[in-house]
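Predict the 3D structure for this chain.
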Amino acid sequence: MRVPHNRWTNGGWNEKLPVFRPLARWFGIQSANPTVDELQELFKHVPAKVFAESVSHVLEATGMDIKTLVRKSGEIWDRLGLGAAIPPRSLIQARVPATDIRGVALLTGGTASWMWLRWKRLQQMEHAGAKFEHVIVLGSSRLCNSVQDWRFPYIREIATKSREPNELEVWRQLLYATGQLDRQYVFPELPMHVGDEKWLTVFPEPPEGQRGKPLSLEHMLRYMKLTGQFDTYVGDKPVTMTVNGGNALYAVLHTCRVWELEDIIFSMPATNTEWPMPDEWWGEDQDRSTIISGMVRLWNELRANGCIDDRARIK
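Done. Predicted structure below.
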């Protein structure tokens, strides 16, 4: 079964549970259908915001060498169908005509090329007839200085090794450079770092070692909820979100859960997993050594949102 044809509600992914299960066993979780709490433990092995930075943690925890990890995780990825393109659809409706899409859109941060790909996917939807009241743009203070950021030619055009932009600066560069930064694009008022003055107006003092770190997507979404910005910009309007490929597909369900949405429209292009990565950047290429991070996150969100539930058959 290809991902685009799955139902995304009420156990619609239950028959995919046996495909996911090896991921848990690699990290010592033997449950036939791990609970959300158990999957949160699994998540701790892939903590990095830039997925490539979690690979060493995964190798240490699983005892695998890199070639074995790439081969085994690639087999799971292929069986899940995560490389397939997803035309505009929602959790409930298998296909949504672009001409029917209204409301607001959401663009999120990440490595620079992921951000660019999400924006281009959103533009493609607009060219096909989608019309948005505005586009909410989210990005953190993470400096775009990882190897994965520097693979993207655009970063090499606008930055130097001594002065890399953060995610928000990349968004503004992209949108200014194309004349797109108008009132349609909304940058919510957010804290710059965990534990700063704005943070402390709604969140408690962060745990030791977390102060000063970039915000996660969950932090941003919850901050918008708690400060009334969700009501201002979203309210009861339909929400559309684009992702760059299967490694970020979890973000759709994560957003839907944190914002407590009944449904969300989403779309993504096809991706081609590679390892080792080619020297030249190409948007459809996905580093096969990092896909375990995306799959663990996706499984966690599928379980938390009821797409995999207690009715799943154990084979």
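The mean pLDDT is 93.
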